Amino acid sequence: MTDEQHEGGFRTDMAISVDKGGPRYGEFVESARLFMDRVRAAMPTEELVDDLIDELATINAKLEAVAIDEWNSPSGTRIDLPARGNITLPPYLVNRADATGVDATLRFTRFHLGGNNAAHGGYIGTAFDDLLGMTGALATGKVTRTAYLTVNYRSITPLYTDLSVTTQVTKVDGRKIFVAAQMRDGDRLCAEADGLFIALNPGQP
Ligand SMILES: CCCCC/C=C\C/C=C\C/C=C\C/C=C\CCCC(=O)SCCNC(=O)CCNC(=O)[C@H](O)C(C)(C)COP(=O)(O)OP(=O)(O)OC[C@H]1O[C@@H](n2cnc3c(N)ncnc32)[C@H](O)[C@@H]1OP(=O)(O)O
């Protein structure tokens, strides 16, 4: 990736990769996700907390030594991995993606718990934002930025259940891409969204 491609405050091109971080990078990301779930579910003893702080200090020092800028990191660019290997995002697999929309399968886990075994609404919005951003990118061939995103929560979204997410381009008007999405548990509509994404101009901050 050149300086020109990411001049300004947001990348204007997507540095996709399938090999950064090596063949076991996906396994590393899944281990990190499992760790996040385990932290969320744990009731540790004081002794275990002491022990874990020390072990994590070692791990964090190893990772700090290999930190790299956002434009070149595997996280967010590995298109062969769930959610492009980005642990910030709920893990989803893209089943179909073209200029008209995207079909994905998504699974929330303990880390994404809102309450009463249901997903937190913010993570539902995060999933929609990313998959709709991808939809805008595929519709225009450019990176797009969210202008607005409206989420309607229609019924409880369960954890540890394969959910389907479908997105559609509803209208393109110059740089404006109007999009919609639905999240379902089988036939049941859990949540839906509509949004406006703006295709960035070259160098736009
Ligand atoms: C297996 C296959 C996989 C393949 C994958 C391959 C590739 C995928 C590649 C990449 C994509 C992947 C994933 C996506 C990644 C991330 C998605 C997350 C995106 C975000 O999470 S991003 C962060 C949150 N987001 C912001 O941080 C925005 C802050 N904001 C701004 O940066 C500006 O605000 C901006 C840029 C939005 C617009 O600014 P601007 O200067 O460029 O344009 P301007 O203001 O002139 O608006 C132009 C026209 O839009 C209308 N307009 C604007 N805003 C409107 C609104 N809210 N409501 C109604 N209309 C609106 C105007 O009225 C005008 O309309 P008109 O032209 O008709 O007058």
TrEMBL record:
GO terms for molecular function: hydrolase activity. Signal peptide: none annotated. InterPro entries: HotDog_dom_sf, THEM4/THEM5_acyl-CoA_thioest, Thioestr_dom. It is a peripheral membrane protein. It comes from Williamsia herbipolensis. Its EC number is 3.1.2.2. Residues 117-188 form the Thioesterase domain. It is found in: Cell projection, Ruffle membrane; Cytoplasm; Membrane. The keyword Magnesium does not apply. It comes from the Bacteria. GO terms for cellular component: cytoplasm; membrane. It catalyses: hexadecanoyl-CoA + H2O = hexadecanoate + CoA + H(+); dodecanoyl-CoA + H2O = dodecanoate + CoA + H(+); octanoyl-CoA + H2O = octanoate + CoA + H(+); (9Z)-octadecenoyl-CoA + H2O = (9Z)-octadecenoate + CoA + H(+). This is Acyl-coenzyme A thioesterase THEM4. Belongs to the THEM4/THEM5 thioesterase family. Pfam families: 4HBT. It is an enzyme of class 3 (hydrolase). The keyword Amino-acid biosynthesis does not apply. Keywords: Apoptosis, Cell membrane, Cell projection, Cytoplasm, Fatty acid metabolism, Hydrolase, Lipid metabolism, Membrane, Transit peptide. Its main location: membrane. GO terms for biological process: fatty acid metabolic process.
